[in-house]
Design a protein that fits this description.
mainly alpha; 76% helix; 251 residues
């Protein structure tokens, strides 16, 4: 046991030296010292294997691992960029990072603050703000933004915008309009979120046969999902399954 601990510490120190000599970001030293064994594995995946293999999949795996160990890394980097240069692009990056951390209040303010002047009709900013408002349970505020987005034409009529519109209509009790938006998004969105949310909507409205058909399609898609997206696919597959077959209440 002590040998294993000692080896992991020595390995972390050696990789720390590698990090300093190769000019890596200083946060790697914290990761290596705080998590000697796991940090060493992640460091090797991110900084050594890609150079040896030149493979994009390895880089993606490493980025996911870093996000798990240091979830606020992107947020802090974006925050510093905004402090140095408060451009629309930098504020958008910070808003996206805040959204990913579920800081929806902050994300909504950042999207709204950036969507001014010549950027008042920026489709990315409008959609980001609408999605944040939905997560904040404020669909009545999100809906006019989504309608503005739709008026922009093709740039604003995306599957993600349709899914967000479906959620807004759903929350407001406008079920016929929600059905149209959900169905359109579910057939066009990559991944399983659109179909999973549509399954939940169908179940809520007593349309189990349609929900079961959609569930079969979800299972087919889940089997074809690449390793990189498997965790996300499993989440949305389980989300749909529990809507269709809710667990029995505990006694």
């Amino acid at each position: 046991m002590f040998f294993g601990i000692g080896f992991s510490v020595v390995l972390a120190v050696l990789l720390g030296i590698h990090a300093v000599r190769t000019g890596r970001d200083r946060y790697w030293l914290f990761i290596l010292l705080a998590f000697p064994l796991l940090g060493s594995v992640v460091y090797a995946i991110v900084n050594i294997l890609p150079d040896l293999m030149g493979h994009s999949t390895v880089r993606r795996m490493g980025a996911d691992a870093v996000k798990t160990l240091n979830p606020e890394k992107d947020y802090r980097e974006a925050q510093k960029l905004v402090e140095d240069a408060p451009t629309v692009a930098n504020n958008l990056r910070l808003a996206n990072a805040a959204f990913d951390l579920r800081r929806f209040d902050e994300a909504e303010r950042l999207y709204a603050g950036a969507a001014t002047g010549i950027h008042a009709e920026d489709a990315t900013l409008l959609l980001g703000r609408a999605k944040a408002l939905i997560e904040l349970d404020r669909p009545a505020e999100a809906l006019p933004i989504l309608e503005q987005l739709g008026a922009l034409g093709e740039a604003g009529r995306t599957p993600q915008a349709a899914l967000t519109m479906g959620r807004a209509y759903h929350m407001l009790g406008r079920y016929a309009e929600a059905d149209t938006a959900y169905e359109w998004a579910a057939g066009r969105l990559p991944g399983l979120e659109g179909m999973a949310r549509y399954v939940a909507f169908l179940c809520e409205n007593g349309r189990r046969a349609e929900a079961q058909d959609a569930m079969l399609e979800i299972d087919k898609r889940a089997k074809r999902t690449t390793a990189h997206f498997r965790r996300e696919a499993r989440f949305w597959r389980d989300y749909a399954y529990e809507a269709l077959y809710p667990p029995a209440p505990k006694a």
